Amino acid sequence: MADRTYGEIPGYPVGSAFTNRAELAKSGVHRPNQAGICGGKDGAESIVVSGGYPDDEDFGNEIIYTGHGGNDPQAKRQIAHQKLIQGNAGLARNQFEGNPVRVIRGAGGDNDQSPASGFRYDGLFRVVDHWHEIGKDGYRIWRFRLTKIDSNANPSPASRTEPAGRASATIQRIIRSSANARRVKELHDHRCQVCGLRLETPAGPYSEAAHIKPLGRPHDGPDVQGNILCLCPNHHVLLDSGAIYVDDHSVVRSAVDDMKLGELRTAGKHIIDYTFVKYHREHYGISEIEIELHDHGG
Amino acid sequence: MADRTYGEIPGYPVGSAFTNRAELAKSGVHRPNQAGICGGKDGAESIVVSGGYPDDEDFGNEIIYTGHGGNDPQAKRQIAHQKLIQGNAGLARNQFEGNPVRVIRGAGGDNDQSPASGFRYDGLFRVVDHWHEIGKDGYRIWRFRLTKIDSNANPSPASRTEPAGRASATIQRIIRSSANARRVKELHDHRCQVCGLRLETPAGPYSEAAHIKPLGRPHDGPDVQGNILCLCPNHHVLLDSGAIYVDDHSVVRSAVDDMKLGELRTAGKHIIDYTFVKYHREHYGISEIEIELHDHGG
Hints:
The structure is a homodimer. Chain A is an alpha+beta fold.
């Protein structure tokens, strides 16, 4: 595994300015001289957002970042498909491992968010989602949703409060429920629609409501029963990471090897809207285009 | 299922004051005239914190709340063991379903946090953990950690931003990692130490680092390798909810039926500290005392 430094670089607080990439590289805040992502498949430590990819969207505390590869840096256009390899795989890995990414904005990025000249270190972000889509130029791009870690904030409501100075290392399952989510779980009696498992605990059965087309930006899937599956935590992780998808015949398939895992389990009054299933397949599951890419490009 | 009203009661904003329980009950903010928990095994909608249980701890935005049952309301002492039934089961259910609990503080509770007289509605809290322990009076009590939902806060870093007015319904897996957590997952090559499963995704294997003795108040388990297990999400949920525990012979057992599930899988350099295993068993797993209670008391 590469020797990576996650988190703040001593001596370079948020807001630190750099005249050019050479100066930025020398500081250690973003080490490569050209690449937008400093990372490999083991993880990514920093990214530069500077307008090189036409699909980037910068909302300040939230960034929809485009992976690397397949672009023409002069024309700032995509000219080929991107793959989930190298720094792209690294950003996805950060999502799984919880490692933060240093975000550096450069002149040329979003007008409202970027410095007028040079580069600026803008703090630590988390990778909270990754998926793929066809970008503005007609080629497949990988996308990462990053949200700023507010170091001044109180611990979020469901966090386990930790003594100052202790390394934080936990997974929080913050469950925000809705009547529709609860109803779908009830209709399935908390049995996973993929594997049929019902987790039994001293406090009763446990299941999760998974949104097929995700809630929130940029997907904006609705919180309706047709967009919700009742899943065990394992299959929830697999669905959200695109490791499994549902085809138009209600068959659950593995995106890793395209194997058929079985029919999606049904419950009488729970009608799934296959528009959302298609959206998930096209943005999270590995599509046929992607499989072809894997076969030919590796 | 009982007809429950979760969340704010219209007309009664945070800070609303009530002279007595009758007035409080009439408002609908906390419907029972005597019970501290308004709820059943399907969920709990509100609680009153007013010093009736000697083990309650009130930190303002965080409350370690004692379940109901087994206390002498006059002497304010525990005189019998508590069980995970009725309102206690309901609070645990809220943790699973994500439903918020209205918290009402009454005079007689923590000096710093409680009103001088009568009762005050203090907002919505989440149930983020539940476990059992032997209370100050020597009897088993159920404990619930509640944290205040800050309705004014920005969305927490990893939340999916949702348009205003849309019901929020999602599970967030906010992963905060540490070198020790990552190292344990690596040592096990992301295989669950309970079932041996390794979740495969397009972005590589996914596993979770579970702290045996939880981090944070009041457990304050350390973030060391001896206190971490590499688990699949399903077994992480089962461990955290006390559905499974590890005995002193490294055997994983179901707390639901006490069945042996198998030996905890080992990795050469990963040495588990059985002090933490014992802590987990005594506070999350159903102990022999608890099993006896189930047998005799139901």
